[in-house]
Structure formats: structure tokens, C-alpha cells
Amino acid sequence: MRLSIKAPAKINLSLDVLYKRPDGYHEVKMVMTTIDLADRIELVALPEEDAIRIVSQNRFVPDDCRNLAYQAAKLLKETFSIRQGVAISITKHIPVAAGLAGGSSDAAATLRGLNKLWQLGLTLDELAELGAKIGSDVAFCVYGGTALATGRGEVITPIASPPPCWVVLAKPPIGVSTAEVYRNLELERVSHPDVDAMVRAIERQDYAAICRLVGNVLEEVTLKKYPEVAHIKEQMKRFGADAVLMSGSGPTVFGLIEHDSRMQRVYNGLRGFCDQVFAVRMLGERHSLD
Ligand SMILES: C[C@@](CO)(OP(=O)(O)O)[C@H](O)COP(=O)(O)OP(=O)(O)OC[C@H]1O[C@@H](n2ccc(N)nc2=O)[C@H](O)[C@@H]1O
Ligand SMILES: Nc1ncnc2c1ncn2[C@@H]1O[C@H](COP(=O)(O)OP(=O)(O)O)[C@@H](O)[C@H]1O
């Protein structure tokens, strides 16, 4: 049996860090939404072989136990004593180590897919709880859609989808370590975005307010280390994006744009100096991801 599952990227429209917790993680409060930039995960049952095989053509993606999709399969196998194997083929479209949760989304898609392939009958809530053991962003990726994420990112409250608009993404040719960005965050110095106001703006479909309220406390850390991220932000603003922000720990920058012609101008302008540029829609609500 064979299954193909879509694994979409996320962006953080608002990202606040409240404090460092005794367990070493940071307490966060953020608004996340899935976008139509996705990896494709193909699962093939290996009934005769008790192994997890990862196939990926991307040289930045590990093909062993370091792969988050591998860890998802292993977790399900061990938790439910599954005695058969699976081949997981990952076609990457989401840039790696980019602040877009590509690896987390691959893990979440693997959880959703294996739930079907192995007929486990788990709910999304149960899959999300398992996913949180793999990484903080995996729970959100299990559901997709738009949500307020709290705790270390694994406590998910669904909210309305933002009004439709374009999302133009540009990733400079650097990879960022999430752990390092959190480590270098100086909480007493940052200005905090108003996450509750962002949730309210989304609930009342107020595009202008959403654009005004975007904010990310991690931006300062990454911008300081990589001036090219600040440069992309400036250019995106200059070409006419309605709002511009770094996603997650970066380095990807996204712009929100309402009108098609403006989107084209921003996209073409960025392509002039940046290799990885995408223009996509938000996916909005929780939906059938497969
Ligand atoms: C910053 C965010 C925003 O959505 O996304 P990315 O930039 O990774 O996409 C997330 O908080 C990233 O979540 P995720 O990438 O799943 O992180 P994890 O694997 O759980 O943790 C990696 C490391 O980041 C730090 N970490 C992560 C989450 C958190 N709430 N506090 C932390 O301090 C810890 O040092 C941890 O060891
Ligand atoms: N399936 C996967 N896809 C991408 N990266 C993965 C995957 N599994 C493990 N990784 C590792 O996780 C790290 C972070 O990747 P990714 O999830 O793309 O970034 P981010 O956390 O910034 O959103 C990468 O450096 C990579 O080595």
C-alpha cells in the first residue's frame, strides 16, 4: 500500500517569547498559519521488513534517525508495537532550516499518513500530543490552518483564517539554528508584539490591522547576525509589500500583499538578487491536507 501526503510550511504572523522556563525551553505566544508551499511525503508499506527507510534527494536533509519524519515513524512503531516497516520518500520544496517548519511538517504528515497506513484510528489531538515529543512546532503542523500557539508552541487553539492575500517569501542562502536564536535572545531588551490584538484583527478580518500588527521578537537576534535578512526586508518594503516580517527563527522573510499586480512587482524585484523566492497563498482553515 502507498500513500501520498502534503506537508505545508508555516509562517508566524506574530511571535512573542514570554520567559525562559526551568526546562530550558521558552514560553511562547504566537499566531501561526499554513501556506501553500509544501513538501510531498510518500509512504510505502514494507510488510516483510521491520525497518524505516528515508529517501530524499535533498543534500541538506538527513536520511537517518536525525530526520524528523523518521522520528515520527519510530515513535508510532514503538508506542503501538508495529511489527512492519515503511519507506518514507520526501520531496522537499520547503527550504531547509528556514523558519518555515519544513522538518516539523514532514514529521506531522508522516504521523497523519501512518495513522491511515497502519489503521491506528488516532484522533488529530492524539497525533498532535505524540508530535509534540518530536518538536515544539509538530503539534501545530498536525492540524494545519491558523492557530494561537502557546506553551513551548505545542498548545494549539484554532482561530479564524486570515483574509485572503499573497505571501511572498524570500530566503537568503544561509541556514539558521533555532536553538542558537533562542539562546541569544535578550528578553529584557526586546519590544513585544501584541499577539492578542493580532488574533482579534484576524477574527474581524481586518487586513490593514493584521499588516500593522505583524511582529516577531526573534527577528532582532537573526537580523543582528545576518544583515542580508535586514536587506531583504528593506527591499520587500521598497517593492511595495503591505507588511514584511521574518518567519520563526529565520532567515526567511515574508511579505503580505493584497493585490496581484503588486505581488508580481515584489516577486520580480526580489528575484533580481535572491535565488529562493516564492509567491503563494495562505491555506487558511484546517482542511484535508492529503
Ligand atoms: C522558532 C519557531 C517558531 O515557530 O520555529 P522555527 O524557526 O524553528 O521554524 C519554533 O518555536 C521552534 O520550534 P521547533 O523548531 O519545533 O523547536 P524544537 O525542535 O522543539 O527546539 C529546538 C530548540 O529551540 C529552543 N526552543 C524551542 C522552542 C521553544 N519554545 N523554546 C526554545 O527555547 C530549544 O533550545 C530547543 O532545543
Ligand atoms: N524532514 C526534514 N526536512 C528538513 N530538515 C530536517 C528534516 N528532518 C530533520 N531535519 C533537520 O532539521 C533542521 C531544521 O530544519 P527545518 O525544519 O527545515 O527548519 P526550521 O526549524 O527552521 O523550520 C535541519 O537543519 C535538518 O538537518
TrEMBL record:
Taxonomic superkingdom: Bacteria
Name of the protein described by the UniProt record: 4-diphosphocytidyl-2-C-methyl-D-erythritol kinase
Gene Ontology MF terms: 4-(cytidine 5'-diphospho)-2-C-methyl-D-erythritol kinase activity; ATP binding
Assigned keywords, A-Z: ATP-binding, Isoprene biosynthesis, Kinase, Nucleotide-binding, Transferase
Keyword hit for Zinc: no
Lineage: Bacteria, Bacillati, Bacillota, Bacilli, Bacillales
InterPro entries referenced in this protein's UniProt entry, alphabetically: GHMP_kinase_C_dom, GHMP_kinase_C_sf, GHMP_kinase_N_dom, IspE, Ribosomal_Su5_D2-typ_SF, Ribsml_uS5_D2-typ_fold_subgr
Annotated residues for binding of ATP: 95-105
Enzyme Commission no: 2.7.1.148
Similarity comment: Belongs to the GHMP kinase family. IspE subfamily.
Coiled coil: none
UniProt pathway annotation: Isoprenoid biosynthesis; isopentenyl diphosphate biosynthesis via DXP pathway; isopentenyl diphosphate from 1-deoxy-D-xylulose 5-phosphate: step 3/6
Role description: Catalyzes the phosphorylation of the position 2 hydroxy group of 4-diphosphocytidyl-2C-methyl-D-erythritol.
Origin species: Geobacillus zalihae
GHMP kinase N-terminal domain sequence ranges: 67-145
Domain GHMP kinase C-terminal stretches: 198-274
Pfam families associated with the record: GHMP_kinases_C, GHMP_kinases_N
Enzyme class: transferase
PANTHER family listed in its UniProt record: 4-DIPHOSPHOCYTIDYL-2-C-METHYL-D-ERYTHRITOL KINASE, CHLOROPLASTIC
Active site residues of this protein: 10, 137
Catalytic activity: 4-CDP-2-C-methyl-D-erythritol + ATP = 4-CDP-2-C-methyl-D-erythritol 2-phosphate + ADP + H(+)
